[in-house]
């Protein structure tokens, strides 16, 4: 049979949602850029009104800016950039704006400071969105382009200040540029805050995943894999310090009958109640987890096999005192236990096998008892 390669409906919807979000953000940025060209064109128009420059280059600059905005609107609206590694195309988008500022310097050398200010804003916006290597490449390109333009422009370049009107308009343009820098800074701050939020969410998700990987989903106890790691660590510690170590395998008696007669939900509630009861009575230095099915493993540190009977019987007494009637009237929960004390240099498998053999001996001896392997 040929393997199916079609994308699942849920995956297609997720991809479509991400693409819609990208398009929305990209078009918003293009609109902001277009508005900026309109504002810049209006400011340049004031200089034309004062006679500092002619109307024609002002109109040409503004029209080219709007054409660039229209072009990128079409690109993003039709999703033509989605096939690229970074669909925002920051380097290409920034290059078109940089070239326009250099063209503006050539057309209106009297207002070179205006285009240098805008060029600075364009480059700053790019530098915040690309990797260091790309930012350096863009910087070299801008520096070379600005140098060629400055060398090729006839006559001096200055800030228009021949009269009070030109001084006011120049001051207004500089002030506007500063406000644009503040806007860029606020955008960067918002992005930084968003990244911090995403980092916190990722850290919380990572902790949750780690918890799920180390714990049993039903009982909340550490799972078999974690138990094996803990036991191996305790064996090495016992080898170094000479302190005794005991493992106890606990198996709920007749648990299959609970599942068969009362149903699996009742069985699950029984396992959770059993796990919670034993966990609360265990010492802080001991580790208790779900070994598999209705089997549980306790790693008792600094304890001999003779002393291990004391906590095991404490577990029995606590379980007998539990109100199991809320799960099922007349329900009683008991367990069989197999103990094994660690022998220096013994493998984990051999230690657990002795505890398992002792557990099965307890089962053969009528259950509800403890045997030593």
From TrEMBL:
Q: Name one GO molecular function term.
A: diguanylate cyclase activity
Pfam annotation, one family:
GGDEF
What InterPro entries does the entry give? Answer: Diguanylate_Cyclase, GGDEF_dom, Nucleotide_cyclase, Rev_trsase/Diguanyl_cyclase
Classification via NCBIfam families: GGDEF (TIGR00254)
- Source organism per entry reads Piscinibacter gummiphilus
Known catalysed reaction(s)?
Answer: 2 GTP = 3',3'-c-di-GMP + 2 diphosphate
| Protein name in the entry | diguanylate cyclase
This enzyme's EC code(s): 2.7.7.65
